Amino acid sequence: MIPQLVRGSFRQRPGRSLLLLAGYALGVGVTIVLLSVGGALVEQSRDTELVGGGDLIVLPAGIDLETLKTGGAGSMYFSIEQAPLLYREVLAGPRFEGRIAAAAPWIDDELLYLEADSGLVPVSASGTIPGLADRLEVAPALVAGTWEDLDADRRWRDPTDAELYRSLDALHLPRGAAAADSTWAEWHYFNLMLPDSGWLYLTWMIAGRVPDGRWGGRMLATRVEPGAGERAYSAGVPSGQVGFSDGQPDLVIGRSSVTIEDDGSYALVAYIPSETGSGPLTLDLTVTASSRRYLPPVEIGGEGITSGYTVPLLDARATGRVCEGAKCTRVEGARTYHDHNWGTWGGVIWDWGQAQAGDYSVLYGGVRDGDREQGAAGPRILYLTDEHGFAGILPIRRLSTHWPDDSLRSAPDSISILAASGADSVALRVAVGHVRATQVPVWPDSPEALFFQMRGAAILSGRLLGAPILGEGDGFFETWTRSR
Predict the structure, then answer these.
(1) Of the given ranges (142-146, 350-354, 357-361, 472-476), which has the lowest mean pLDDT?
(2) Contact 151, 126 (CB under 8 A)
(3) What is the domain count for the chain?
(4) Could you tell me the pLDDT band of residue 24, with boundaries at 50, 70 and 90?
(5) Is the peptide bond prior to 273 cis by the omega test (within 30 degrees of 0)?
(6) Final residue of a domain: which of 283, 314, 344?
(7) Which long-range contacts (CB under 8 A, 24 or more apart) does 38-42 make?
(8) Scanning 125, 200, 260, 301, which has the fewest C-beta atoms within 10 Å of its C-beta?
(9) Do 370 and 442 meet the contact criterion of CB atoms below 8 Å apart?
(10) Best CA proximity match to 402, nearest among 347, 474, 348, 477
């Protein structure tokens, strides 16, 4: 019946029938093309040559996918900075646990050279973490033997507290030009809130031409009691009484030490003589992270500056005892912050601050070499964490320190910061309360600079990750200016 209808339609209306047939054929052809494109996209997402495959692939900015797949020069030697932080805090962290089922790092088709009797032989090498590749369902077929996670793989994806803090807080030997620079210094810094609303600045430092020149250790502490003045403590220790190892966090300076215990807590011990001849400051504290809020090690210097920085403890608590002479104070769960600096510090100044503002731990900073207006500057960033860990990092667009007059010798009274990236824009406003000013030699043409250590109230506001944020709290802040 249908063939008869078709033949009859062609005899009566041949033009219309041909037009309908052509339209039908075109529709079928478009459908086939679309299905083919969809199939190609599915296959490409599973393509092991495209860095492992998956629903979402994270690559460094500026990488061309075709160049990457064909092995062009633009695909060589790239890396993703802070990949462990990206994996632990974003892809496998609690913030997106309902949206990301599995993630795995992948190095694909990396050019290596094998040293053989016949000379150097180029080889292509790939690498991933076996357990994570299995979860992502992109593990390569195993021809023989076993392919399982090593202990190093476990430490990369899910370190214990002790493993994490030991890797973040590792000490360094200066290398290259820095090894001959007498301004090299590295230190563990803590600030500790005390029960009487006062606080302590604490520093365990090594400095000089480490380890083969003239160098040593130094202990510094300042006890601040608002309304009751300040008390300074310091001691220099020869290198023979300093103990540390490259790549390890533990540091011994005379009778003082910083040690990371096997449970991930920090054991702080200090004995520091008073600068005024009164009784020494002694302390014995255990510092434990309240949450895993941290900044991994970064190089933050600009041209001509060697400057490294990490913040293992943005949110921690201390328990133990602090004594000034015979007067001892018991500390229970006192708010504590810890960071770690290393680098060369001749003619270097910085802006820095850390605060607790509502649900957020806030950190900002940047260093500058030489003249404040014209010296080479490193990047200035604002870094945010919350209950889920890493929340965002934004370049600072404007950082202003406000002074009550034009002399720049009086204390700052406020700080304002604007940081923005894409649709995210965050402002931090600080009303300075307590200020400690110290004269420090920095520039040859202006022997003394003023270094300001401040504590104040902070307000964080703006928009982050598509949502408005607002938090209030307090923190500690630092800046410099020339003496005039």
Answers:
(1) 142-146
(2) no
(3) 4
(4) low
(5) no
(6) 344
(7) none
(8) 125
(9) no
(10) 477
C-alpha–C-alpha distance, residues 342 and 301, integer Å: 11
Beta strands 256-260; 251-253: pairing state = antiparallel
Q: Where are any strands of DSSP class E within 64-149? A: 106-116, 119-128
Does residue 457 sit in the same domain as residue 435?
Answer: yes
- Give the model confidence (pLDDT) of 290-338 as tens digits: 999 999 999 875 566 788 999 999 999 999 999 999 999 999 999 999 9
Whether pLDDT at 157 is above 80: yes
Per the CB < 8 A criterion, the answer to whether 215 and 207 are in contact is yes
Q: Are 266 and 294 spatial neighbours (Cβ–Cβ below 8 Å)?
A: no
Give 197's pLDDT tier (boundaries 50, 70, 90): confident
DSSP E strand stretches across 300-441: 307-324, 327-344, 348-357, 360-369, 381-386, 389-402, 414-421, 424-440
Of the residues 306, 322, 344, which one is the last residue of a structural domain?
Answer: 344
Measured CA to CA, the distance from residue 365 to residue 38 in angstroms comes to 47
Q: Are residues 339 and 356 in the same domain?
A: no
* Residue 107 CB neighbours (<10 A): 14
- 150 lies in the same domain as 226: no
DSSP letters for 6-33? HHHHHHH-HHHHHHHHHHHHHHHHHHHH
The H-assigned helical ranges of 86-157 are 130-136, 151-157
